[in-house]
Amino acid sequence: MNWYELHNINTVDSPALLVYPERMRDNILAVKASVKDVQRLRPHVKTSKITEAAALMIEEGIHKFKCATIAEAEMLGLAGAKDVLLAYQPVGPKIGRLLELTEQYPDTKYSCLVDNAASAVAIAAQFATAQKVLPVYLDLNVGMNRTGIVPGSGALALYQELADLPGLSPIGLHAYDGHLHDVDFAVRKEKCDAAYEPVAALAQMITDVGLPAPRIVAGGSPTFPIHAERQGVECSPGTFIFWDWGYQQHLPDQQFDYAAVLVTRVISVIDGERLCLDLGHKSVAAENPQPRVVFLNAPEASPLSQSEEHLVVKVADTMQYPVGTVFYGVPYHICPTVALYERVGVVENNTCIAQWKVVARDRKIMI
Which parts form a coiled-coil structure per UniProt (predicted)? Predict the structure, then answer.
């Protein structure tokens, strides 16, 4: 029996997402070995959004995390994480929610990103009124062109302004280079090093004006092995815990194991070479072109069309796949796929033994 198959598959309705804790632990150990110093690991939890997954990392001595939503930040508070960076600049009601998180989970040190003075002033005002000081990281645009300020004199001036705002305490720089995902590691490293140069220069400028040396949180899954070689830099991979087919193809230098698998079934045989599966847009991330999933036990199956609840695939001979046949698949992009499921099946020894709630798929848990 293959590692992903279930003895009790007849008890699992489809479509479903299964996770494999032993393989998750192996991936956690592998990422620790890659960075060497666990204190320099700050994994992003946007991939799993599951309290139990965070707990597995905490059990392995990982205590710093990154997240993108208030719900993910609260999940980490519930899990007992010590240090949580909300890698997002809160605006509007999110500021108050972040403040409430710091009050509800006092054992967790929360921080967030800022990239402009107006947002900083708004955040500072609420925290100062509550007689609290929020640690913040200056968000830098190193080529992603999504958020952040370009590192340089303007960024230095903003960092100095943050230091003067009651309610805020600038503690570091955040540089996300998610636009760098070249398959060729040497090319990726060259681009990553070039993007990081102005970050290092800005850090030096900050110390030159008499402020404490800033912490630096840099990179994501494609570039974390490169940043791992920089002294003191915190690395933020995320996908490693489950891995996916997309990164398996495009990051051959990273050797993680699949630890999350989709289950789908043949629901109709169209003709001699076409099948319909119950795996539509609502069951696997659909932001990328096909193929959005590859099947471990039917690698020949190639997608022809997909709608909300259906996936039509082409095979050599449909006689091999009668109605009810179970396909086990790995998504191209696991992070948004997880968010499509309220619960995941937990597999040990080829048996689905429990379910974990994907608690942070919602925009709100309690706060």
Answer: none
